[in-house]
Amino acid sequence: MFTENKVKLAIAPIGWTNDDMPELGGDIPFEQCISEMALAGFIGCEVGHKYPREIEVLKKALDLRGLRIASAWFSAFLTSKPFQETAEAFKAHRDFLYALGAKVIVVSEQGNSIQGQMEAPLFENKPVFTEEEWSCLVDGLHRLGDLAAEKNMKIVYHHHMGTGVQTTEEIDRLMGETDPKKVSLLYDTGHLVFSGEDPLHVLNKYIHRIHHVHLKDVRMEIVHKVREGKMSFLQAVKAGVFTVPGDGAIDFQPVFAALAAAGYEGWLVVEAEQDPSVANPLEYALKARQYIRETCGL
């Protein structure tokens, strides 16, 4: 289905150790995490908070297991802080990823975000950007895109639950006001379905601006509980709203077919934050790997 050697399969460490809730997987060491990634059949990963920051130490640990770094999350505060604060942190993040061979940088605007607030009702308290904030976001992303280009890298914007860019309408505005040469899109199946969007509509509309993909499945019965119970994003994660492809409500076959038809090149990253004491990370990594192999041959 996919062009050979053009599409690579990775998995995120968030199924083992959660960056937003360190108590989830707090007892799981970095070495176990990456060893189980490799054991499950993945060739790449993203970066978690337990990863060593020394380039050579991290490279050696990954090389021993045949793993590469696909990308890593960067929190931007373009709507709430002076640009220079975000720029300095971004350049350090960019240089770290560049040294590890990554080609894309995951960026999400965290100004006024509620995704990290344990008690904030997700759908009721979601931020909505003002016109001034939209202007700051678009201008700031263009400038971050220029900084990424200095290293021949791209920024891929992560639409995300609990932030100012979550819905189809907000993604449309972001894509409509940003320069495709400077700002690309990260496509995340789980966040779109959780939000109530049509993931295939977004995929087909922006297929040629998508340069990074997160494969995340959703348990719809938990989505309903989140809405009815006015739960926060973190509470939803703890309750098990996300799971790996093949274990939830999303049919990934048309997603893979659309990406393949468009000639997608880059990483497909399994990303499903769960409580590892409930959902054994290796077990779920193996489940995802088997499903992807059976569904698209990768």
UniProtKB/TrEMBL annotation:
Q: Which gene encodes it?
A: iolE
Q: What is this protein called?
A: Inosose dehydratase
Q: Which PANTHER family match?
A: HYDROXYPYRUVATE ISOMERASE, INOSOSE DEHYDRATASE
NCBIfam families this protein is in? myo_inos_iolE
Which species is this record about?
Anoxybacteroides rupiense
Q: Does the keyword rRNA-binding apply?
A: no
Family annotation (InterPro entries): IolE (IPR023952), IolE/MocC (IPR030823), IolE/XylAMocC-like (IPR050312), Xyl_isomerase-like_sf (IPR036237), Xyl_isomerase-like_TIM-brl (IPR013022)
Q: Which cofactor does it need?
A: glutathione; Co(2+); Mn(2+)
This protein's pathway reads: Polyol metabolism; myo-inositol degradation into acetyl-CoA; acetyl-CoA from myo-inositol: step 2/7
Enzyme class label: lyase
